[in-house]
Amino acid sequence: MNYYIYRRKAKAFFTGLLFWICRVFPLRPDRIVMWTLEGKGGYTDSPKYIAEELLKRNRERKRNYEIVWLTNVSGQAFPDAIKVVKDSLWNRAYYLSTAVFWVGNTRTGYGTRKRTGTTYLQTWHSIAGIKPIGEQRGNRLPEMARIVSRADSLLIDYVLAGNEWSCRTYRSGLLYDGLILRTGTPRCDILFWGKEEIRKQCREKYGLAADTCIVLYAPTFRGGSQSGRRSVSAEVGTMDFGRLIHALVAKFGGSWHVLLRLHPQVADQAEAIMQGEQNDRVVNVSRYPDMNELLAASDMLITDYSSSIFESMLMKQPGFLYAEDIREYVQDRGKLMFCLEDMPFPVAYDMDGLERRIADFDRVSYEKMLERFMDRLGVFEDGQASNRVVDFMEERMLHTARGVSSIGGRYEG
Questions:
Q1: Distances 329 to 79, 168, 223 between C-alpha atoms, Å
Q2: Range of the domain at 80
């Protein structure tokens, strides 16, 4: 065993002791603890939409759910009814040890312990994936990542899914062999309702005219996968925003702006990128917490290997893949889950290719390809996932309070 893994395991042992100590505190029957991006995320993703439904039931059905949100992000707005807590080791141990439900979109910290009477609901942070995760990466999965993933998966009680493809691939991707809930994905609900209001709010927030067309450029992060110590980076590569805007105007007309949204783990780097950008039609939205609100507000998405393309797909929104570093990315990450050319999204490997793909875009044929692809994935998203998940949580909490270990479940599989 190398020294790094030994040190991580020793730290996890002492972390676990703290969780055991916190079992002296009783379970709180209405306490629900949430987090995003391992505490590095704010009020966003599927936990946000589950929280919104819980708060709605507090108001309308006189429920008394206490929602605790673990985060190290400062300056983000949360509803007053949510208790925002610093994601420190002591706080994690206390609040997770006293909650009846955990709801997260990424792993718990290595060393976390879960007591009887607590249910862990893993929402994950994508509905499907181009890039491989977990054992899908083969020998490119670091041993420490394998250990951490397996430890967390043994704690999970249920994983949410919005399509049959994910129901199958979560087994290897999350190193998980437990129950999957076919409820749909709460973070996608907004893509089915409220889009017009979100479009209006987004344009007002960034000082854009109401009829402005928006292309969202959202590349994923890079690097650091082999060392065991995670180090990520981001860059826009050879993307020429001036040429992109010119191509969009030539093809579709109208006035176009680019919203640049880097992955939350590398959002800090967006400022440096923007310093060298001379085009005033490029807006940095990397600090905007909710990616799916940005998708709902946009007219088009351009990404590389991000799972956001599958969520854009649900709206039949034009989506393009700009994969200029595909060889290096596959070498680092592992074989992609799909051949890019076999998906319905036009693929470009340089700016010349992207301009051609935009010029040749045909919406009618594109939407037909999307429908076939969604059938292939077995998509069952319908905008009602948050309601289903909270229904399930309420049933689960009721049966747990009665001492029943399993409720069967309408959505289990």
A1: 39, 24, 8
A2: 3-188+382-401
